[in-house]
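User: Here's a structure from my thesis project, written as C-alpha cells. My advisor, Dr. K., wants to see whether a designed sequence matches the one we expressed. Can you design one independently, without my sequence as a hint?
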C-alpha cells in the first residue's frame, strides 16, 4: 500500500469515527489537506523550507550571540519575511503549523528588537 494511500485511509477512519467533528467540517478539511501536504509534494516543500529556515536562523543566532549590532536589523527583516511567507502559505494551504511558527517568529522578533535597543543604549552610554 502506498504511503499516500495509507495516510488517506487512516484519515478516513478517524473522520468516520467523528473524532474531529463532522466528516465534511472545517477541521476535517484541514486534517485531510494536511495529509495531502505530508504525503505529496508538500512533504518535500516542508523539509526544504524547514531546513532553510533552520539554517538561516542558526546563522542569525550565531551573529546575535556575539552581539554584533549590524546583524540585528537584517535579522529582524529576515524574520519578518519568514512571518509573511508563513502566513501567506498557511492561508493558501490551510496549514495549522505555519501560523504557530509565525507566532514563534514574532516572539523572536520582539526579543531581538528589545536586545538591539538595550545594546545600542549601552553603547551610546544611555543604559542603566
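Assistant: Designed independently from the structure alone:
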Amino acid at each position: 500500500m502506498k504511503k499516500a494511500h495509507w495516510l488517506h485511509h487512516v484519515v478516513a477512519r478517524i473522520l468516520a469515527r467523528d473524532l474531529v467533528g463532522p466528516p465534511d467540517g472545517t477541521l476535517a478539511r484541514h486534517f485531510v489537506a494536511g495529509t495531502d501536504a505530508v504525503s505529496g509534494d508538500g512533504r518535500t516543500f516542508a523539509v526544504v523550507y524547514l531546513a532553510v529556515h533552520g539554517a538561516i536562523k542558526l546563522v542569525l543566532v550565531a551573529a546575535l550571540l556575539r552581539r554584533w549590532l549590524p546583524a540585528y536589523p537584517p535579522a529582524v527583516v529576515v524574520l519578518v519575511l519568514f512571518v509573511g511567507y508563513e502566513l501567506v502559505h498557511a492561508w493558501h494551504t490551510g496549514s495549522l503549523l505555519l501560523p504557530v511558527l509565525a507566532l514563534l517568529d514574532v516572539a523572536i522578533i520582539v526579543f531581538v528588537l528589545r536586545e538591539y535597543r538595550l545594546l545600542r543604549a549601552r553603547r551610546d552610554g544611555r543604559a542603566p
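When you compare it with your expressed construct, this may help: The first helix runs from residue 3 to 16.
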